[in-house]
Amino acid sequence: MDSLTLLLDGFATALTPVNIAYALVGVTLGTLVGVLPGIGPAMTLALLLPITFNVPPASAFIMFAGIYYGGMYGGSTTSILLNTPGESASMITALEGNKMARRGRAAQALATAAIGSFVAGTIATALLVAAAPLVVRFAISFGPEDYFALAVLAFTAVSSVLSRSVVRGLAALGLGLVIGLIGIDQQTGQARLTLGIPQLLDGIDVVIVAVGLFAVGEVLYVASRLRHSAPDVIPVGRAFLGRQDWARSWRPWLRGTALGFPFGALPGGGAEIPTFLSYAIEKRLARGPGKEEFGKGAIEGVAGPEAANNASAAGTLVPLLTLGLPTSATAAIMLAAFQQYGLQPGPQLFDHNPALVWGMIASLFLGNAMLLVLNLPLAPAWAKVLHIPRPYLYAGIITFAALGVYALNASWIDLIILYVLGLLGYAMRRFGLPIAPAVIGLILGPMAEIQLRRALAIGAGDPTTLIRSPIAATLLALSLLILLLPAARHLLRLRRGRAT
């Protein structure tokens, strides 16, 4: 079956009344939580992960898709009205968007962010439909050594790109790998790192780790820097764009989409690089009023980066769905959601669960349209959410996280683990260790271990088995290159300094 036929089948799944309702709930919750200051899409997904535990898989992932895109939309509102980006990818939006808002153009800034996100999300989802089957055909030929090499590439790429230093990224990755070892070894049946606690024999639920590190850890970190003064929220009316604003926005939307999608699909690519590139390109290409307004609130500086940000969100779904490879923190939480239902993304997911996968992809088109309807007329209502007192907000998040985790197994041990991991997440942020490598190490670590053992068993223990496949050799070479590149840059700087 070709992609178009499968997509039409996906729409048949997504457009049922029940799934439309789940999509609407997802985009509303995602936007609501994403609007709150200091909360990005990754934390939004982690916080809302437990509430879908008893929802049917297809409906759950349609809701997750809505939460994912809703969190991306909501972050722009916080950046523009409060100058508080929920994640690093929204920094550029805050830079120009907040200055537009302070000049009395908050409605136009919110409108170009919402419409640009809709345009970029729709085009990028169409590219996802075209690219996913091609990657699946390529991935079918993967052997155990190839999957192990792919996991190593994910480890090195995320540890290097999503942290201020490779050492800190690898340290965070090591923490995640250690947490992933807890429980019974699937091959030998031996208990590992359980400390004699029976509840740990099955390992630590990935939902608890995600909520603890992302939600509880982030809340503790932000609350520790809480300012008691009321937030300075800029008032806003109904979001709209005039004719001149449309003329200045549509080209940045397309250019941002062209940058965001491929970067999102790369291991470790993320949304930070394309948003900064989009801003730089728009600044260089600016003419007339736009050139004078850059640095003072240019609409192009909001339109391009927001489009790149949302296009990268669809791009991350390509390696996630086809290879089981998360390329960002948000994708790692999505992978945790799949594992919550006993599903492993990859080529077999497309073969065994086509209704679920294509229903989720089709729901991205549906969710994009819903978000546009929700964000344009309801911008003043979302702005009022920003007036919630911070102490009540963070106390509510902690309570909600605890209730969701306790509902999983009704175990007080889970609550203790949640708060221990929350303190660990706080400490990691306090000392500059990134969270994403830890979560990816926890999720992909057991899979990498199993594939490594299988490859060595097939090769009778010969370690050269790991590089006999051209795919595995190429992926491991890329991993080595990623690790050595920062050291090479450092040596080059030292050499230039001595020459100077």
Automatic annotation (TrEMBL):
The chain crosses the membrane at residues 109-132, 138-158, 165-184, 204-223, 355-374, 394-424, 431-450, 470-488. The keyword Cytoplasm does not apply. Keywords: Membrane, Transmembrane, Transmembrane helix. The keyword Iron does not apply. InterPro entries: DUF112_TM. Residues 20-440 form the DUF112 domain. It comes from the Bacteria. PANTHER family: TRICARBOXYLIC TRANSPORT PROTEIN. This is Putative tricarboxylic transport membrane protein.
